[in-house]
Design a protein that fits this description.
This protein is mainly alpha-helical. The protein is built from 7 helices and 2 strands. A two-stranded antiparallel sheet has the order 1-2. A hairpin with a 4-residue loop joins strand 1 and strand 2. It is rod-shaped, with a radius of gyration of 34 Å. The model has no long low-confidence stretch (mean pLDDT 85).
Length: 252
């Protein structure tokens, strides 16, 4: 096309018709500009399509991560609820029995239980690497950022504090007052043991009762925050599911 205009331009110049030559020259410039604009628009469309496909991919990965996180925190909640039930039974046994039992030793193991919530951040890391502005929905983009930058760190903070309580208070007391029985096959702790004499001592001085109550309180505190975190995961999943449905509806 450009060569065609050049041939016309040369003919106009040879025929000494400058006005017509000027018109064709302008037409050639316009043609080139239009071609460039069309190419830019096509490139913009292609980039937009790539961004939308990437947006869906990242949202689906975050969705999958959150679904796994939801199941994990549900398990943690169940564990903490069971721990408190058994520790309450340990208090009942301590109040009503003058000697320990196999059940008492089993209950004691639950003072060491520390659920550890480890959320999967792969989808959010991918979003950060491509720029959070890739998510067009302002509400959804803010919700995702707040969830990973505020909600999860806030929960993990309290979980870590509870772990420190276990290390410095609970385990220290158990080490000083109980024997830790090992499974010779699996080489792991499978129970606690205390003599009748030592049992009566910690029963009468109230030290074990205080520790059990402290563990129950720590569990309840973290359980409340875990329940809130679970609901925030559910709420974010609803937002993501709705956004993915909207995107797919627009594509059809």
């Amino acid at each position: 096309m450009v060569n065609f205009f050049r041939r016309i331009r040369k003919k106009m110049a040879d025929d000494n018709r400058p006005l017509k030559y000027m018109k064709y020259a302008i037409g050639e410039v316009v043609l080139v500009v239009v071609g460039i604009l069309i190419a830019l628009q096509i490139n913009t469309w292609n980039n937009e399509l790539e961004n939308r496909l990437l947006e869906v991919k990242i949202l689906e990965e975050i969705q999958s991560n959150l679904e796994n996180d939801l199941e994990e925190i549900k398990d943690d909640i169940n564990t903490m609820e069971e721990a408190n039930q058994l520790l309450s039974k340990m208090i009942i046994h301590l109040n009503g029995h003058s000697a320990p039992s196999e059940d008492f030793f089993y209950y004691g193991i639950w003072m060491q239980i520390v659920p550890h919530f480890d959320p999967n951040r792969s989808g959010y890391v991918l979003l950060e690497s491509n720029g959070v502005e890739l998510i067009r929905n302002d509400t959804l983009r803010t919700s995702i950022s707040n969830h990973y930058e505020l909600n999860y760190p806030y929960y993990n903070k309290y979980e870590n504090e509870r772990s420190q309580f276990k290390v410095h208070q609970t385990n220290s007391f158990l080490l000083n007052n109980f024997d830790w029985l090992l499974d010779e096959k699996d080489e792991g702790v499978y129970g606690l043991y205390i003599s009748d004499k030592d049992y009566k001592k910690i029963k009468n001085d109230g030290s074990l009762r205080k520790l059990i109550n402290a563990n129950i309180w720590e569990n309840e505190t973290l359980l409340t925050r875990a329940t809130r975190t679970k609901q925030k995961i559910i709420d974010l999943l609803v937002l993501i599911n709705n956004e993915l449905l909207n995107i797919k509806e627009k594509q059809t």
